[in-house]
Amino acid sequence: MKVKIVFTLIQVLLGMSVLAQAEKQQTAMSTYVSALMKKMTTEEKIGQLNLPAVGFDVTGPVVSQGVDEKIRKGLVGGVFNTFTPIAVRKLQEMAVTRTRLKIPLLFGYDVIHGHRTIFPIPLGLSASWDTALIRKTAQAAAAEASADGLNWTFSPMVDIARDPRWGRVSEGAGEDPFLGAQVAKAMVRGYQGDNTYKDAHSILACVKHFALYGAAEAGRDYNTVDMSRVRMFNEYLPPYKAAIDAGVATVMSSFNEVDGVPASANRWLMTDLLRKRWGFKGFVVTDYTAINEMMAHGLGDGKEVARRAMKAPVEMDMVGELYLAHLPALVKEGKVTMTELDNACRLILEAKYKLGLFQDPYKYVSEERNEKEMMSGDKLMLAREAAIKSMVLLKNKGNILPLNAEKKIAFIGPLVKNKRDVIGSWSGAGDYKQAISVWEALEKRVTAAPIYYAKGCNLVDDTTLRNKLNPHGAMLEADSLSPEALIREAVEAAEKSDIVVVFLGEPFGMSGEAASRSEIGLLPNQKGLLVALKKTAKPIVLVLMNGRPLTLSWEDEHMDAILETWYGGTMTGPAISDVLFGDANPSGKLTMTFPRNTGQIPIYYNHKNTGRPFDAAQKYTSKYLDVSNEPLYPFGHGLGYSPFTYSGISLSSKSIQGASTITATVTVTNSGKYKGEETVQLYIKDVIGTVTRPVKELKGFQKVLLAAGESRKLSFSIGQDDLRFYNGELQLVAEPGAFKLFIGGSSEQIREASFVLQ
Ligand code: NOJ
User: Atom 10, ligand 1: which residue's CA is nearest?
Assistant: First the structure.
């Protein structure tokens, strides 16, 4: 007892000293920044809000001009798209030696799924459901980026996405708010470390795109968003909030409107919600020219939209330079107050202070670290592990996978030897030439029987599509052989073999920004190859590389196995070879529903019941005439080489009272012959609410590694906090009444129990 009291006392004292320390640091920062701001002219303060792009890579129509000169005049707060120690040193030197006040610059970049070492695309990473692994990838990305002069990444993107027509689903963690929040937290912690930026490995993260960007109507990028507050709070906002709670340093405002006002001018979003309700203390940067785009949204001329953005407020203007152009007059005319300008400037200077740039502006510029960090062995190993864990085995009829290396195998398809596409979109500073293709990996793997290769088809046959994609980095061309000859070659290779493995999917530019599709199946020429191969009657494994859920009804019917590998990054080849030959056991689970056809979209597992749920015996129920309501592959689905069986769900009590918790227990058994990892998922349904509640919601998950034949008891603890949701008044409440609880290996393969909240 005594020991316990002393221990608690020590803890309290330690807590107090940490708080006191934080307060001291806060005061020191305020004093420093106030003193600096006293010396600043209005123009210099405005300059801090300016983020021009210097470099090669643009994501919008505007490129910044005359940046050197602006830096020298103190009219730049940070630059984006510049990296490498040499380039960063050059600009930083300009800022800290040739400007009046010597204020260092921020250096931002889209480090999205790795910097030089490329990890699987975020949607793929999320399919690992392995937040520790995801955090490590962000940490490794920060280590490389920071050794390349960068101190700020525009990541994580945490937009909930339920519409796979939207190309940017590839950049997020899928459709679920609970999982999305866990991933958001992991990534912020990976990039920012413990938020003290003590060493040069941690960089500022930027959660984006605030808010609701993933809900663009019809999945068309940049399109209008409109949704109820209840939906927003319960289904779309949790991942942003999780990033804020994890201490994310910056937020990016989204392109879209929210309640009829574009995010960058939306005071409710930026002030009432983000800062007052959530307590965010950092600064907001706009998305690329988002302030300027408010003219096209119809909010007024350049001066007016700059004024509106300052009132929201958003502090930093990415590339648009409307703050630079109009704030001097707006401040003079009193339309933007000096206090508003000071607040914005202060937040940006504080971010620089926290990074330690005032002490050492070259903290992130180190040739030595650059040499050491880039694509180091440990990062490549992590990339291989991440690629393996991201893969989702969608179907495996008759356990055709793993491949038997004694058999003759034909590897067919335009992605077998491909390097350009396997690193995916937003691969930033990644060099596709350093990626290992599937073929390179296969050639290294010893097989007892011969392997064959045929390209089979062009990745894209349609010239109009090729012409849209090629100007943006795609390297799509028509083969010198005709499409018919390519297919003939493939059929010949298939006929010589015992089994056929076909690699198809999307070129990388078909997902990502400005890459919406109205049909999300395989392209017709690729499908044509599959039809021809099917006629050989050989067993076929379809290996997919793509950045979104695809409609695969035909493929599901006709292929023997389907392995979704997304874009696996630098180590794609070895990872795929590991999985195909059973050196690794796939364990990924979908984080986005795969629809049967495009007409089912939006389709997501945590939908509402409606007043007329589907009932086959009744005409007037919620359904389609031409397709079922069920998805092809549900959220949480993913097979392995060993099946897992679930038994005996039990609850420690049938009711929760006050702060008490109940424990739900199941036994999971690996009933196959391979060691494997299962992601055990917990869903809850709130049976009766003051507002309608989803048919089920993910509330927990655990990963468990089991040897062949091994069983393990797993427990989940459930308390009031897990049952809370935002009611009609947007209060976070848990409402007493009946609940259902489900545990299983996907959102559909579940066992059920019931309890009551009293
Ligand atoms: C536009 C994109 O929407 C955003 O995600 C990205 O960070 C910026 N461009 C900067 O490249």
Answer: 288
